[in-house]
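Treating backbone geometry as a discrete language has practical consequences that deserve illustration. The sequence in question and its structure tokens are set out directly beneath this paragraph.
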Amino acid sequence: MRRFSRFANFSYIRTDLLEEHLEEAEFLWGQRDNALYSGDYDLADLAKLEKRLNAHLDGLSIGGARTIQLLEPELEGDDVYRIAAAAAGLLSLESEPANSLIFDSAAETSNETQVGFVMALCFRPLTADVKAILQTWLNAESANQLAIAWDVLSFWRDACAADISVCVQHENPLVRQAAALAIGRLGRSEWLPFLAELQTDDDEEVRQMACMSAAQTGDQKLLEILRERCQSPEKVNPWEIHLLAILGDLSDVELLTGFLADAATAESGAAALAALGYTQAVPALLNAMSQPLSAAAAGAAFQRIVGCDLPILPPVEQTAEEEDAGFADMRPLPDRPKCQDLWSELQNTLPADQRLRAGEILTDDRWLAEPNQGDLLSRREEIFRLRHKQPGALPALELDAPSTIQLALKQEA
């Protein structure tokens, strides 16, 4: 895009239009964050969303000093999507003063808002100036600087020529979390032993990132650890249930169906059975449709496995108060008898020993041949599974990267 000279006259730029660009960018950033883990989006849909987001960031980029004046205070806020939009807008200016504002604020931000700066730095192109600053942060004493540098540079698959052991043992959990991410992304063999240490960390998010990285680097002990954890429903976390489903096999159906019996874990159990994809889970899902708290999740899981139109109950008239109370879950409720009838027709046509997604057989190498296919949730799950079985598969593919970069990797291959 053509950049304006720093001596250009920006007096014709209306501040209210810049504010509108910021508002829209903030909204779209939240949409994108949700889309990355959604079964309703594919890469083409993500590209359309990102095109709109980039249009608003480009709108901010022509505001010069007015854009800086508008966005600088937003870096001190507490909404991560607004911070991301403001930081990305400043990055779009490609100027040293704007970059300085970003990094000064990022160095002092809180643990809760740090992710906003990371989002921006992982979305806009990594320029030489920005990369140089981040590389100096790899050995910084500041926890914010360490966490951001390791997270962002490993995201862009930079070599990160620094001692990661300092981060693994750091007192700040965000630094240890960034270290776990970096190990999984870069896959250096000499760093892999650190993942075992991080998998037993006191902080749950550090443990989660360490386990996700262990999955991507082919840790074969991880499956047994997850199975042991899932034997204790009162202690297991939803992400552990989901990760077992991503990596597991037919023998895990019985273990995962056990989560449907408890209202506290039924949602996680249904989603896990859908991700695992075996039809042996269908009878348990049909049974869960009879329970009000698990019916919607069980119906969605049934549909995700067998791939048919879900028979649903007619909507029930509700008062305004009842609608407000149940607004969070807008999924339809399945018609259990009709679902049972449908399953009676389908069960002899679908393989019982093969993983299915929407009625189609899933194979472990399917995404190796065509990594850009499918909805973004299935794609993420299946590429994690592929990397666990084939360490080093698709090493340059970052699933949170802008769609243009992900699509370009396929074209280069």
Notes: The first strand starts at residue 356 and ends at 357. Residues 188 and 408 are 24 Å apart (CA to CA). The first helix runs from residue 15 to 35.
